[in-house]
Structures are given as C-alpha cells and as structure tokens.
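Below is one such protein, fold included:
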Amino acid sequence: MDQVNLDIVNSCFEVVGSIFGWKNFYKLWQSRAVQGVYWPMTGFYSTWGLFNLWYYASIGHWMSFTGQIFMVGGNLAWLWLVIKILY
C-alpha cells in the first residue's frame, strides 16, 4: 500500500474517532455528571493527538492531519468540560 492510501485509511480512523470524541463531549454536556470514567486517559490521548498533528505534518499525511484536528479538538473540549464540571 502506498503512502497516499495509508493516509486515506488512517484519516478514516481519525474521522470516526473524532465523531466518537465529539459524541462524548455532547453526552457530558447533557448529563453534567462525570461518573465511571478515568479522565486522565483522555488527557493522555489528547497529548498523543497533539503530537500526531506534528507527526502527520512532518510526513506529509495531510488527510490524517485534518482528521486529527477534529479528534484532538473533541478530546480537549471534553477535558475542558470535565474540569469545568469538577472544579
């Protein structure tokens, strides 16, 4: 598989992950209850997502980069809401 196809496949995972991340944000926005989750895990994956933005740009995977913007955005929005609710 060439690099372009790898970028397309990976960007599909990024887009699906971003849909789930923003769905998590929406559900937390509705319930305003942080229960049954270990929120530092999302913090770790958000940090990894920020690294991936740099990584994808460095290897020229612009579709993955674009998908990752939405995924890390959803994760960071969710973390912001958790902090707002808890503190």
In short: The chain has three helices and no strands. The chain has a mean pLDDT of 96. The two ends are 48 Å apart (CA to CA). The first helix runs from residue 3 to 31.
